[in-house]
From TrEMBL:
It comes from Cytobacillus purgationiresistens. It holds the Pfam family HK97-gp10_like. This is HK97 gp10 family phage protein. InterPro entries: HK97-gp10_tail.
Length: 132
C-alpha cells in the first residue's frame, strides 16, 4: 500500500482553502443567527405604540478568532420591558410589572441552535472542497 505525493499536495491545498473559507463561514453563520434572533426577539416584543419592536438591531463583531453577535435596542424604556420595573404612585412603590425577557429568551435559544447551524455550514464547505 502506498500513496502518491500529488495526493498529499492536493490534500494540503484543500486544507489551505478550507482554512481560508472559515472566516467566510463564521461570518455567514453569525449573520444568519443574528437575523434569526432579530426575528424572534421582535415577535416576542410587546406592541404598545410600535416604537420598541422595530428598534431592534444587531452587530457582528470579530475579536481574534471569535465572532460576537450583539443584539440591542436603543429605545429608552427597552430595558424596563425586558427586565421588569416598579410601579410608583405618589412616590411610593405600589407594585411590580414583570419583565418579558424577550432578549434573554432569544439569546438562550440562539446559543442552543447556533452550534448546529455552524456545523452544517462547515460540513457543506468540506464536501465542496474535498468532493464528498
Amino acid at each position: 500500500m502506498g500513496f502518491e505525493f500529488s495526493e498529499v499536495v492536493s490534500i494540503k491545498a484543500n486544507l489551505i482553502e478550507l482554512n481560508k473559507a472559515f472566516h467566510r463561514i463564521h461570518l455567514k453563520v453569525a449573520k444568519r443567527v443574528a437575523l434569526l434572533a432579530i426575528r424572534k426577539v421582535k415577535k416576542m416584543t410587546p406592541v404598545d405604540n410600535n416604537i420598541l419592536r422595530p428598534a431592534w438591531q444587531y452587530d457582528v463583531i470579530k475579536r481574534g478568532d471569535t465572532y460576537i453577535i450583539v443584539i440591542y435596542n436603543q429605545t429608552e424604556y427597552a430595558s424596563f420591558v425586558e427586565k421588569g420595573h416598579r410601579i410608583v404612585v405618589g412616590g411610593r412603590t405600589v407594585g411590580w410589572v414583570e419583565g418579558r425577557f424577550m432578549l434573554e429568551l432569544t439569546g438562550n435559544e440562539m446559543e442552543r441552535i447556533a452550534p448546529n447551524m455552524w456545523k452544517i455550514e462547515v460540513e457543506k464547505e468540506m464536501r465542496r472542497i474535498f468532493g464528498n
